[in-house]
Design a protein that fits this description.
- The chain is α/β, with parallel strands linked by helices.
- It has one domain: NAD(P)-binding Rossmann-like Domain (Rossmann fold, 3-Layer(aba) Sandwich), CATH 3.40.50.
- Helix content is about 35%, strand content about 20%.
- Helix 2 links the parallel strand 2 and strand 3.
- It starts with a strand and ends with a helix.
């Protein structure tokens, strides 16, 4: 079978390796020739194009499964809406009728905050940030498209793994961090996220939305303390001042993964942040 990955980056490349190992032909769309050479070395057939430029998408190959996991490039000169909403529309309009499954990578950020409470797939979406608003608009656009009935939306918690550990730079700086008591971190290791993508491809009852998280939120202060240990850095200090390092978001929600585990049958390699963080920090 043929697979097409739009945005063959941190997550996309890991999914590509899994599909390649299963004997599938995999095409990967990237924006830069340098990245094209990198994925070609892994057996992926590169396509250099830009989802925000429809003319560059005219030669998309027919593929049974399409994964849209385009990342936002803050120096790319395009808005988040252009990348997530208009880019997805351009891709949908360019796909072959051969497509039987569309998987869209979204974010738990679409829910906004929840006062520290638990959220699941039925929780209301109240995105406050531009990125989350654009992702939710893209989800709705996909649902309204004819391919929407074949689509799976994966709302990822914080993606981490080798080479991507949130707030490493802040910890190493030694500066006080503005992290109020009661902030939560919801995480999913990139290898587990790749497993969820493959499981979503086999979901028998699309359309469906899943929250992708390890299901074990951790207090942000606890997370940062453990990260400091693994980095060999001094224990972090915290403050409430708005002038200190703001970290990543308020973290006022906790993400359930019950539907993902029960319906997709995923067995997580890293069931909590402790196992995943230790493995990811090993190469630092």
């Amino acid at each position: 079978m043929t697979k097409l990955i739009l945005g063959c980056g941190y997550l996309g490349r890991r999914v590509a390796r899994r599909w390649r190992a299963m004997g599938h032909e995999v095409f990967g769309l990237v924006r830069h020739a340098e990245h094209a050479h990198q994925i070609a070395a892994e057996g992926v057939r590169p396509i250099v194009a830009d989802v925000t430029e429809p003319v560059s998408l005219r030669a998309l190959p027919p593929a049974e499964t399409v994964l849209y996991c385009v990342g936002y490039d803050p120096v790319g000169g395009k808005s988040r809406r252009e990348v997530y909403v208009e880019g997805l529309r351009n891709v949908l309009d360019s796909l072959s009728p051969a497509t039987r499954r569309a998987i869209f990578i979204s974010s738990t950020g679409v829910f906004g905050e929840a006062g520290g409470g638990w959220i699941d797939e039925d929780s209301p979406c109240r995105p406050a940030r531009e990125a989350a608003q654009a992702l939710l608009a893209a989800e709705k656009q996909l649902a309204a498209h004819p391919l929407g009935k074949l689509a799976i939306v994966l709302r990822l918690a914080g993606l981490y793994g080798p080479g991507r550990l949130p707030q490493t730079a802040e910890i190493r700086s030694g500066r006080p961090l503005a992290v109020p008591v009661g902030c939560w971190v919801n995480l999913i290791h990139v290898d587990d996220a790749a497993s969820v993508v493959l499981a979503a491809e086999a979901c028998p009852h699309p359309p469906r939305t899943y929250l992708v998280s390890d299901g074990h939120p951790v207090g942000r202060r606890e997370y940062l303390g453990r990260l400091a240990e693994l980095l060999g850095a001094p224990p972090p200090t915290f403050c409430e001042s708005e002038t200190a390092s703001p970290g990543r978001g308020a973290g006022q929600k906790r993400v359930r993964n019950t539907r993902m585990l029960e319906e997709l049958g995923v067995q997580l390699l890293y069931p909590t942040y402790r196992e995943g963080l230790a493995a990811a920090a090993g190469g630092l």
